[in-house]
Design goal:
The model has no long low-confidence stretch (mean pLDDT 84). The longest helix is centred in the C-terminal third of the chain and has 16 residues. Helix 4 links the parallel strand 8 and strand 9. The protein folds into 2 domains: 149 residues, no CATH class; 74 residues, no CATH class. It is an alpha+beta fold and 236 residues long. Helices cover 18% and strands 19% of the residues.
Length: 236
Amino acid sequence: NHDIDNTDLRHFLLSLPDNKTDGLPGYLPIVMNMPVLITHNIATELHISNGSIGRLVRLVYDNHNENLNNNTDITNPNFPFNTKYIQTPLYALVELPQSKLSSPLIDLQPTMIPILPEQKTIKIDLKSFITPTQKRLLNNKTSITICRTQLPIVPAYAMTTHKCQGKTLTSGIIDLVPPPYAKSDLANVYVPVSRFTSADTMAILRPFPQSILNQKPHPDMIIELERLNKLCNSRI
């Protein structure tokens, strides 16, 4: 294992979206009390799994680790002498209202769940980063394997249609205008609109083309609906 000392490469790897890095983001903005989304299945039987939404309460550190507290031997000319270096947290304390713990954890309120950092070995495609010349120097290798340790959470102020599937949301604002690079799909309308229990708790961000409401269902969807209809009729 080697540390990555190429600044541009480090920035590229840290900037990749979490769906390219097995749910472990590089840059993770942290604001206390912000909504967060769990990106890994931690305990599915307790509803602590990929897609669970909660509230970040705080980060917990090892305050008894002398190596972290006395870091005077760490020097960097780019920062003043009294710089406080960021430590790796022991865990993030997240409030998950939907969790199914039978009893609260010791010294924690109900629904307060410690989320530990996870380590993953991830293969990254570098085709969009390296030049043809660099590719030749690497003997046409266009991927790199990295080891990342990170909290399996991402901010949940907003989420994609894919991420919100299966969820019931109390309130929110949805955008029905399709991205310019995406193929129009009826599911991109149905899924966000159907996440709310009432139209009163949902707002539409901006005007959208009426044509997206006139789309025909995908052929695979029609086949599945017909299959379900036959199954339902056979049981009557």
